[in-house]
Amino acid sequence: MSEKVSGSFRDPSGFMFKHNGQLYRQVNQKYREEYDLLMTSGLYNQLTKSKTLVVHTEVDLELAPMPEIAYKVIQPDVVEFISYPYEWCFNQLKDAAILTLAIARRALEFGMSLKDASAYNIQFQQGRPIFIDTLSFEKYEEGMPWVAYRQFCQHFLAPLALMAKKDIRLAQMLRLHIDGIPLDLASKLLPGGTRLNFGLASHIHLHARSQERYADKEVSQAEVKGRISKSAMLGLFDSLLSTVRSLRVKTIQTEWTDYYQDNNYTEASFEAKRQLVKSFIEKVNPKQVWDLGGNTGEFSRAASDLGIPTVCYDIDPGAVQQNYDLVKKNKEKFMLPLCMDLTNPSPDLGWHNAERESMQTRGPVDLVMALALIHHLAISNNVPLVDVANYFADLGEHLIIEFVPKSDSQVKRLLASRVDIFPDYSLNGFKKAFEEQFTLKLQEQVPGSERTIFLFTRKAQF
Amino acid sequence: MQNLFSIISKPELYLDPGSGSMLIQLILGAVLGLGVVVRVFWKNIKDFFTGGRGKAEEAADPTAVTEDPTRILAEVDDTPTDPKL
Q1: Residue A4, by phi and psi: left (phi above 0), alpha (psi -120 to 50) or beta?
Q2: Entry pTM
Q3: Do residue A150 and residue B6 have CB atoms under 8 angstroms apart?
Q4: ipTM above 0.85?
């Protein structure tokens, strides 16, 4: 049984579909010439050898769900976990932007043009960004402008500029504007000083003005044909590239980045906690791990260092960025750091609420970890323990969770400025709440602390 | 259906490039393209004397194939066959 993948409907060149649980792409007759050019020009080889385009194999055409218009059926390599631009830290979005431009420029060298510069075409695989849309290339016609210029500016340049020049939290605008941030809006929000920056002045401010001015004028492809030379195109790519490269966020010192220097653990008990977590992970032997509230990935690495693909979620973009920088520096392959507010996780978004999946839809996973997190959900966010347990049971089969008692200085701090309305927040109350959904497998106190780590397994659901 | 997915014609633009976005490109392209021409000209002169190729530029390009095949193989060998061991 074949099933079309929602979110893959815009491009008439082809579409993604699932067959017996495997992911395929139908390439339509319409795209025949371009597909053949991609494969024979050397561009495909160049990009897959540099591991910047997803590798695919051609499979039986019989699998095509719409055979009357099918040219090929291809099977792309599986991307471990699909993430979205509004879940990336600044440097992840920046690397994705640099890759998109590098591919556009490289394509030109092989006589092709990148027709689609959507940020959703980039995924993080083995610690590196990779382009996943094989059908995004078309034959380059000398003299034609770059059709994806506006899209690139909306999806990459505008959010990066807003994050770097205004406020890092504006990354969340991408969750609202899933086709990128409108340039007139970006232009209004950016500080006036950015008009003195050549790249931002031209690609955002002037660009937005030009859009406004010619909004109701029709300019046909034929009219602009022959008006922009190949070197002009290269100049455009280079200018975008240097503008993107020059955007930086200062070392992000946000809420949690110095957490490990300021917590309840001595070095010895910190190491003991790591060993404890590692031994629990080995008992579960999971295929994939989600570490919730994982900060800079200190304990996620207990899983990813074992070769287990691990997604480390944290609410703090500074911590996520530190983690990502570390992944890059050490060329780690099994760690994916992402920004996520667990009290308001990524929802199903887009057309039919099905283009971009919610965090939960992308699960469940074998193992969920929630270390030093429970007090933030139960006390700061007032979520009853039973509801926390229900949510975690939806996300994964096994759960490694740390209970932080009221006597802990971190919890004391949370309760210092408010009335304690949490009579059930105790070790016994916690166990009682979680044992409704889970079976307790292991329980160990972290040496040298008042905290306890539990291993739970979800009860069979009928 | 046949009309929607006409087999003969080339893939049409499915992305609206936007009139303003195309026109600003023409202007920026003219200016920036000139820069590229000048830069290539200077680079050629420099390369003539130094015999060098823009290695730094190539290294910063993620789509450049820099690794020789033996290094890629070594990388594969590094991956533990059974990470749980």
Answers
A1: beta
A2: 0.90
A3: no
A4: no
